[in-house]
Amino acid sequence: MTLSLQAGDEVILVGAGAMAEEIADLAQQMGVFVRALIEGLDIERAAPDDGTPVLWVDEQGTFRPDLPVLPAIGSPKRSDLVDRLVSEGRLLASLLHPSASISPSAQIGPGCVIFPHVVVGAKAQIGTGTIVNRGALIGHHTHVGDHVFVGPGANVAGKVVIGNRVHVGLASVVRDGVSVEDDAFVGAGAVVVGDVARGTTVVGVPARPMARD
């Protein structure tokens, strides 16, 4: 069962960068209290004595172990950190903005952030720890994997399969029936009209694999 944060709830964010600042603002708008941030990628960001403490991952276990965590790192690199926190006993919470239009038949996994004005279509599935940014569209019967980032204004059509740890860039388009495999990167504004192989970066219109030196 997904723990969906409501006004008055408390949470710890996973991450202490720019995306965490955005998600902290979103939580504040919804009346959710961010009590700390957990940093596991850059120890220089750790500041345990600040007003909202930034805890290094190795020291977070004793801070309010009753509180759930919410992924707040834009990069799919967050996956290992989130998985570690869950293995150490933290619960995952989701933050679903009330302006998002989410089909009652859609499934949203734990640890997701759904920003304002997102549309999630019928029978769509969104996996654990995925962030869907402002105004993005997820079509009917589309499956979005774990720890995916869907950028602002992206349009993912119906019956698409998005793998794990995929980045779907700002204002990109993924046409219906396409598969984008694990660890792929879809550049900003790209128009994906065919399948994208694992670990491939595609850019342009139509989207093509980026040339490598």
Q: Would you spell out the secondary-structure blueprint of this structure?
A:
Elements: E1 3-4, E2 10-14, H1 18-29, E3 33-39, E4 54-56, E5 69-71, H2 78-87, E6 93-96, E7 101-102, E8 107-108, E9 113-114, E10 119-120, E11 125-126, E12 131-132, E13 137-138, E14 143-144, E15 149-150, E16 155-156, E17 161-162, E18 167-168, E19 173-174, E20 179-180, E21 185-186, E22 191-192, E23 201-203, E24 208-209
Parallel strand pairs: 1-6, 2-3, 2-5, 3-4, 6-9, 7-10, 8-11, 9-12, 10-13, 11-14, 12-15, 13-16, 14-17, 15-18, 16-19, 17-20, 18-21, 19-22, 21-23
Antiparallel strand pairs: 23-24
Account of the protein in words:
This protein is mainly β and 213 residues long. Helices cover 10% and strands 29% of the residues. The chain contains two helices and 24 strands. It has helices at residues 18-29, 78-87; strands at 3-4, 10-14, 33-39, 54-56, 69-71, 93-96, 101-102, 107-108, 113-114, 119-120, 125-126, 131-132, 137-138, 143-144, 149-150, 155-156, 161-162, 167-168, 173-174, 179-180, 185-186, 191-192, 201-203, 208-209. The strands form four sheets. The chain has a nine-stranded mixed beta sheet, with no helix packed on it. Strands 7-10-13-16-19-22 form a six-stranded parallel beta sheet, with no helix packed on it. A five-stranded parallel beta sheet has the order 8-11-14-17-20, with no helix packed on it. A hairpin with a 4-residue loop joins strand 23 (201-203) and strand 24. It is globular, with a radius of gyration of 17 Å. It starts with a strand and ends with a strand.
